[in-house]
Amino acid sequence: MEQKETKDAEVEFVPVSEAQNPEELAKKRKREAYFELTLFFILGILLGITFKTEAVKRITMGFNDYQIIAPKEKYNIEYLKENLQQEMARQQEQIQQQAAQVQAQQQDAEASEESSEDDEKQL
Q1: DSSP readout, 95-112?
Q2: Residue 4: is its pLDDT beyond 60?
């Protein structure tokens, strides 16, 4: 068997600008730019597909609205309406009672003033 010997070869590092002429560098940059744009385009398409599939699950608009299953409501609107109407009726009754009391007090005050005036006239 032969033994292969590997020797460390000296590698000369040549700057890129010296190794290629400006025309080749321009072509290379152009190719890299096209490659990056292509990658962004592909990434955009993939993100668009992802967003669309997620949006279809959550956002519904259009002619398929009748197919949407209505979620259970946390509140019974009819019950709340009835309660509000009853509360409003109670408040109206209280206001009327207070108004009647105020009128009665005013009448009593007027009557007491008249009686005090009559008493003074009699004296």
Answers
A1: HHHHHHHHHHHHHHHHHH
A2: no
Residue type, 111: A
Neighbours of 20 (CB within 10 A): 14
Q: To the nearest 10°, report the CA torsion of 57, 58, 59, 64.
A: 50
Residue 52 CA to residue 40 CA, distance in Å, equals 18
Q: What pTM was estimated for this model as a whole?
A: 0.35
Angle (CA) 42-47-52 rounded to 5° is 130
pLDDT at 1: 46
Q: Which helix (H) or strand (E) holds 81?
A: helix 77-122
- Provide mean pLDDT across the span 88-113: 91
* Extents of the domains making up the chain: 14-64, 74-123
Task: Collect all residues with Cβ–Cβ distance below 8 Å to 68 and sequence separation of at least 6.
Answer: 60
| SS3 at position 78 | helix
Q: What are phi and psi of 75, to 5 degrees?
A: -125, 140
Closest CA to 57 of 68, 72, 70: 68
Quote the pLDDT of residue 3.
Answer: 52
